[in-house]
Design a protein that fits this description.
The chain is mainly beta. Helix content is about 5%, strand content about 30%.
């Protein structure tokens, strides 16, 4: 897939960092780098142009984020299905769940603030990869499982300035 070039105002992401509104934002990507997504669990951050369709946050750990995105608190019973056999694959699900799922209410701080992209969402193709989120990082040089991660303050800055016309442009 050849990505479309970024437009002014897009969030542009490369392995070397992210840029939005003239600001450079340090970030980390998947452990297998940026490229063509091969399937669930491959560690690749997918090349492409995506939209953000919602944000979630830990209300017990941080104030309500400022954003125009639909916003939902993360509760103890929230998960995200990553099992291609699950009818709820690549979608929110209850936690615990009968199929493999990632718990959204984590002990670490990675999902204290999360924005979900529309990667593999319309239509959902089982096994093509799930949950490409923008989330809080573990730190510089500590890759994700395929998501894009930022310092918490930078992610809050992005979400506060997000507009419906903006896109997430991931480039190799």
């Amino acid at each position: 897939m050849t990505p479309r070039p970024p437009r002014r105002g897009d969030l542009r992401i490369t392995a070397g960092g992210a840029w939005m509104d003239g600001r450079r934002l340090p970030c980390v990507v998947g452990r297998a780098g940026i490229g063509a997504k091969r399937g669930e669990g491959d560690g690749v951050t997918p090349v492409g142009v995506w939209r953000l369709d919602a944000a979630r946050w830990r209300a017990d750990r941080r104030p309500t984020p400022r954003t125009i995105l639909p916003l939902r608190p993360i509760g103890a019973a929230h998960g995200w299905s990553d099992d291609p056999r699950d009818p709820l694959y690549n979608a929110p699900c209850p936690w615990p769940h009968a199929f493999s799922a990632e718990r959204m209410r984590r002990r670490d701080r990675l999902y204290d603030l999360v924005a979900q992209t529309d990667f593999n969402r319309s239509p959902i193709r089982p096994g093509a990869g799930s949950a490409i989120f923008l989330h809080v990082w573990k730190g510089r040089g500590r890759p994700t499982e395929g998501c894009v991660a930022f310092a918490a303050a930078d992610l809050a800055w992005i979400l506060a300035r997000w507009r419906a016309w903006r896109r997430v442009v991931i480039q190799p």
